[in-house]
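question for whoever is on the cluster today: can someone run the full assembly for these? two chains, 309 residues total. i dont have access anymore since they changed the login thing
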Amino acid sequence: MIHLITGGSGSGKSEYAENMLCHYQKEEGEQLIYIATMFPCGEETKRKIRRHQRMRRGKGFETIERYTNLAGIVDVLKNYESVSVLIECISNLTANELYMEEGAKESTAEEILTGIEAVCRIARNVVIVTNEVSSEGFFCSPEMIRYKQVMGEINCCLAKRADRVTEVVYGIAVEVKKDR
Amino acid sequence: MIIGGSFQGKLDYAKKLYPEILWADGRDCPYGEVRTCGGIFHLEAYIRRIMKEEEDHGRKYLGLLEELGSINPEIVVVSDEIGYGLVPPDPFERRYRETAGRICTRIASDAEQVDRVVCGIAVTIKNKL
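^ ran it for u. tokens below:
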């Protein structure tokens, strides 16, 4: 099962995504992996990270931090007999690949999509969290437009690949693409 | 609860659905009115006003909103749906959209019905009735 979850900020996407992965986990002994992508710089992001850590405590997730080159994580995932993976989130990964020194820069979309494909080949279930970033129209620099464009491209490809796509609206799951 | 982007016809829809109730305007109503009013529109502006107030004062009323489901269980809440854009560069704006999101999520969870209005057309996304 590949399940893409999107929505606005503060809408409860993460909690919904965590619960969905727990729901998909059927086999005993199947390890739940949480791929954290937010690079901790400054108090605000650290606070956000701590909030997320509190939220998923006790749900049985093992956290792996990964800021760029998602495909490289396959070596770690291979160590488990059976895994289900939550990737949180595409908007951070995209920013990391675009702007971090070791990022993929102009091949960001390709890098992320290849990485997710690699994870999908190994994991039984993959839940991916992304963000709606293009529906507010305040002035954008060319750099910001570029970011929205890359995000849009990745989101469209992921939705096509996914078995199920859900938009979380203030905690309410609105199905966009139903499970085949 | 009725949500949607700005200028989508949310209030027209709300007033048609609930023609009898007294409305508070979140842009300028006294803060306490959420306890007693039949409905409030521009909840997002109400939240923003509170957050611009001094810390203690603000916290009290944000807490009130969290408990709205038990304080004023019959209330109809109309709010702009925000947080569908890029992360704003300004720290207050980031805090605002995050807070508005969390509060609306809480209100939606307590609500019996949530309708989302797009271009004047309402789609019910939650209905416990």
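summary bc i know u wont read the tokens: The helical segments of chain A are 13-24, 43-56, 74-77, 90-99, 108-122, 142-161. The interface with chain B takes residues 8-12, 44, 132-138, 140, 144, 147-148, 169-172, 174 of chain A (CB under 8 Å).
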